[in-house]
Specification:
Layout lengths: L2 H11 L9 H31 L6 H13 L5 H10 L10 H27 L37 H23 L3 H28 L3 H18 L4
Helix pairs in contact: 2-6, 2-7, 2-8, 3-5, 4-5, 5-7, 6-7, 6-8
Length: 240
């Protein structure tokens, strides 16, 4: 196991508040499903970074990554996606899931700030003169991920707890990727791009952990998490 993943598990995954009804379920899906995907993603990210750093004269990868990041966060994706998720909770269920709603509302703000960090790299390197220039660059306005989580209210019927799988699984991948970049890359703008996101992405992971531990204590509440997790592993991670 890669040391970055091992440290992440020891610090943030295995510690559990006593008496939480969904903790045993979370430990099971972590061991049976999540760790495999996290290992694959981290290995892929480290290999990609090392390949990029083997050609120090070529900074094109920094531009490509900043454009992808801008497209995958903030105004292009997060506002649409997370607003849809907030609205997917029926009025009678709002009180029951109020902690989830508050967490997701906070995450909208975080993700929109993250898009600005990617713009900072593009501005700092001189690849754009102002953020408005990104509206004319296709790579900054499109992302390839499936729209399962409601980019435009495609799935308003999705169970509120399905979001816990997204936060727990995907945001752990984000945390691991950030840790890899901070461990391997010296460029101050790239480090700024990742360091400024680190604590917030960790908080998003902890949202998912909290939701599973405190809400998923029965088969009825566990099933939406398992279903969404299986989808993410297959469609996003390529795991069958």
């Amino acid at each position: 196991m890669h040391p970055i993943l091992e440290e992440f598990l020891d610090r943030w995954v295995w510690p559990t508040a006593p008496g939480t009804p969904g903790a045993a379920f979370r430990w099971r899906i972590t061991k049976d499903k999540c760790i495999q995907g996290w290992e694959i993603s981290l290995k892929r990210t480290v290999a990609e970074i090392e390949q990029q750093l083997s050609h120090p004269e070529d900074e094109g990868w920094k531009k490509d990554r900043a454009l992808r990041g801008y497209a995958a966060e903030g105004v292009q994706m997060s506002i649409k996606q997370m607003s849809a998720q907030l609205l997917s909770v029926d009025v009678p269920d709002q009180e029951r899931y109020i902690e989830l709603q508050r967490m997701r509302a906070r995450q909208i703000w975080d993700e929109c700030k993250h898009s600005k960090l990617h713009a900072d790299v593009l501005l700092g390197k001189g690849w754009i003169k102002q953020e408005r220039d990104l509206m004319d660059i296709p790579q900054a306005n499109a992302q390839p991920l499936p729209a399962y989580f409601g980019l435009s209210m495609m799935f308003p019927h999705m169970h509120p707890l399905a979001r816990a799988a997204q936060n727990y699984y995907q945001e752990a991948i984000a945390c691991l990727g950030i840790a890899a970049y901070l461990a391997l890359v010296d460029d101050p703008l790239v480090r700024h791009e990742h360091l400024s996101q680190r604590d917030e992405e960790l908080m998003h992971f902890m949202e998912g952990k909290f939701q599973i531990d405190f809400y998923c204590g029965t088969p009825e509440t566990q099933q939406p998490v398992e279903d969404a997790l299986d989808y993410l592993r297959h469609q996003v991670g390529g795991i069958r």
